Amino acid sequence: MAPKKNSAKRPQPSTPKPSAPARIVKVQSSDGHILQADVRALLLSSTLAATIKGYDDENKPLEKLEVNNVVGFTLKLVLEWCEKHKEDDPAIAQAEKDKKNIFIPSWDRHFLTKLPMGNLFDLITAAYHLDITGLINYGCKTVANSAKGKSTEEMRELFGIPEPWEQPSTSTATWDD
Amino acid sequence: MRKKREKQLNKAKLGSKEGSKESVKGPMVEKKKETELLPEDKTQPTTHSTDSLEFMMPEKTDLKMNKTQPLEDDKTKESKEEIKGSSDEELGEVQLVDHDPDAEMKKEAVKKQAREVAHQKQLAELMEKSLERSESMNPTPDDTMKNVSSIHNESELPEIQKKKRKDYELMANSKFPLLNLPPEIIDLALKSMDRLELICYSFASKKAAKQVKSLHVLVQCL
Hints:
The complex is a heterodimer. By secondary structure, chain A is mainly alpha-helical. Chain A is 45% helix and 7% strand. Chain A has a single domain, classed as 2-Layer Sandwich (Potassium Channel Kv1.1, Chain A), CATH 3.30.710.10. Chain A has 8 helices and 3 strands; from the N terminus they run E-E-H-H-E-H-H-H-H-H-H. Among the domains of chain B are: 2-43 and 52-92, no CATH class; 176-222. Chain B has 10 helices and no strands. The longest helix of chain B is centred in the N-terminal third of the chain and has 42 residues, at 2-43. Chain B starts with a helix and ends in a 7-residue tail after the last helix. Classes of the chains: A mainly alpha, B mainly alpha. The interface between A and B is large, with 39 and 32 residues.
């Protein structure tokens, strides 16, 4: 059996870690919505992981985490993705960051492509604020895939780029500059 | 002496004759004056309602006749009636035309045409109403076939294709404001694009061209 070509590109399935007792934490969004999530899922976010680590170091009871940059609907999507990937190793996503060709698993592809572009934008922005590398990678790859086969005019329409004559001319620079 | 007396008598006779002549000429002068004043009477309001000059003619004739021939009143009255009758005939358009023997035939023909037009209009209205009723009661077979075919086509599509179509519609309808993302994320998204898409994107705007330039992508061959 010859190994498949794409097998090297695909991320290795996360090895099952020894089962630890589930630790549920409340997360509050910027608009006041309170959601519940597993701590292991929250550790995918570098920002939240640092906050949780600070609580653990001080031996304080972690009751509620406040996320001021993300609204309730988007936070729900982020936690859904994190819940699905809570078994994944964050190092793998970090290694994929510099790669050009990122393979998107089927669940993630379906999860990201079903979203409207506006919600996808909010999700990527939230992932950037919470520093979730895997979600950023898949989100950016989804955006790149959406531009496939499109002309300049279509891309301009998709990405909301104004026409050249509509842009305010801040300088006298020309195309040759 | 006798001759002198005869001359005086002759003079007296002659004077009396001249007086009589003068007495005879007096009314003639007055008549002339009246004739000179006649035009002023024309301007005065008359009993007749019309203003035409032709209608004023009988008055003139009356006056002249009264002045010149006061004894011939009966004749003037007759002539006056004749003149009035002729003026009435001249004024009325219908009265000027003689009795047309074909007028009744013409009227009947016009009435027949009007009846035919009205009958045709009624028939057309009835036809339209009957058509509308038939359409409302029995829909045309073409419409039913269209509906059946559309339902059949929709049922043939699998659910996965329907979902894909919905997803595609959602993706196509909304916009992704790429330039509002943080620069690191834009770079990451552009890096995962192919060369052709990068070139197309670089043509979108000056800012996009700068972003693509900053990636330092080497294009060895296309």
